[in-house]
Amino acid sequence: MKWAAVGALLSVSSLLHAGDEVPSTVTEQLQRLVPTNIPTEVKQTPVPGLYMARFGTTILYLSADGRYLIDGEMLDLQQRKNLTDAVVSSARVEILDGLDESELVVYSPKQTIRTLTIFTDIDCPYCVRLHEERQVLLDAGVKLRYLLYPRAGINSPSYDKAVNVWCAEDRAAAMTLAKSGMQPDDKACETPIVSQIQLAKSFGLKGTPHIVIDNGEVIGGYMPAKNLLQKLGL
Hints:
Elements: H1 3-7, H2 24-33, E1 41-44, E2 50-55, E3 58-63, E4 69-70, E5 75-76, E6 81-82, H3 83-97, E7 105-107, E8 114-120, H4 125-132, H5 134-139, E9 142-148, H6 157-167, H7 171-179, H8 193-202, E10 210-213, E11 218-220, H9 225-231
Parallel strand pairs: 8-9
Antiparallel strand pairs: 1-2, 2-3, 3-4, 5-6, 7-9, 8-10, 10-11
């Protein structure tokens, strides 16, 4: 079960969009199951008597009488479509669109056509390789937005490097310096790194780089720039 993931969700605007059509048995059961979190959305699914509850990017399904809980994916076999994945992708877009770019490390092209949001670890070799190819992406009109995810955890050397990058006067230059193997100047300031680590976990991050396309699709791991451009239709 994903109760830990539900409990660790960020402070996404948690409004319950439950109309009169959602039975009270469903909303009351959700309150009992997850008392510390208000669903972002509750609505009926295409399956009669089955309701979807979304907590950020975590999806649960509940029967109308509140008796049965399904923790998994819903597939439309006729349309050959993963309905759960479509909802989660839309949720990712909603969350990423709500991020303040002043709290990201951003590399902007002259004209933005597509956007990639990347959870990165400064000491990750494949993150470094992707960063070395950044100009190919920028020249094609792809904006790169980095969130910091030191895999070794808080108070590790990787975390300290992330702090130094974040606290630098020019974060983009400091990021490039750090990924080239050089040590940015030691800095100390308030950072959003812990919240970015929590966001990564709610997005199901298992490794870095963790690339999220602007349509909500996730690429778990390194992909060469030329392949990324093909995937983006550029």
